[in-house]
Amino acid sequence: MRPIVVTGAGGQLGQEFQKLSSKYSFRFEFLGRKDFDITSVTSRQIIDTLHPAAVINCAAYTAVDKAEEEKALAMRVNAIAVQQLGRVCEALDIPIIHFSSDYVYHNSLRRPLEETDPTRPKGVYARSKLKGEKLLLKSHSYPLVFRVSWLYSTFGHNFPKTMLRLGADRTELTVVKDQIGAPTYAEDLADAVLKILDKHLGDQTFKNIHGVYNFSNTGVTNWAGIADRVMKTAGLPCKITPIRSIEYPTAAPRPRYSKMSLAKFKKIFEIPLQPWEDRLDDCIRTLLNES
To answer: Following CA atoms 148, 197, 84, 87 in sequence, which dihedral angle do they give, to the nearest 10 degrees?
Structure first.
């Protein structure tokens, strides 16, 4: 059986794929940064040798603010290397699944954003993610690209885990209230991708579902709302005081509104999506049980 290759296997999304792998009948090849440098010329040789049934690319440069100083590296990882990986998969005629960001929109629309809406990324990270999308769509005939917002997991570093840690030591935290969107539990994203592969891999229907899709949990909130939910679920007395973005300046600009429409994903894949509140609760309870 040819493997499903998962790059960036050491990241929070990659680790979710590893955790869920036993639920599916695929054979997996998990490649972390030491095994697979997506920017290296040897990456093509590795994929050629493995000759996988599909590639799930979780490798990414995700340091949003640091990208302002490391523009070349962010572009190399999030754009140029993605193009190269797309070309390899195209040559082998195998599917590639890639993950982008809600940051690519950054427009002035104040309603759930659709995949066809204008993209006006601000900041190096956002521009690198959009460039990666465009280069992949040119280098591969039928890629699947998921634009994901506010990703978190029980693995790695992310906002809910930071709030949980800080909330255990402090009585009050100030958190931004005027950035609107929806968090994404990485476990749900990984499970949705594997469900899609389970249904479509190996037949021509995969080529009929290619394109760009928004993905997140359902509902809408802000960062202060997420932080408050973390404290309540964990039973921590830490008070969350909402502030404006202007009071918490960052090197890279953040979209004020990036709640994405999920209508296209729901229509094409018919995979139920769960409310962000329920899934955040599940994640926090898992972290508390593990501690």
So the answer is: -130
The pLDDT tens digits for 9-33 are 999 999 999 999 999 999 999 999 8
Q: CATH for 4-157+183-217+258-274?
A: 3.40.50.720
In the set 105, 125, 152, 213, the catalytic residue is 125
What is the predicted pLDDT for the residue at 274? 98
103 part of the active site = no
pTM value > 0.85: yes
Nearest-5° angle of CA 73, CA 75, CA 80? 110
Q: What is the number of helices (H) and of strands (E) in the chain?
A: 10, 12
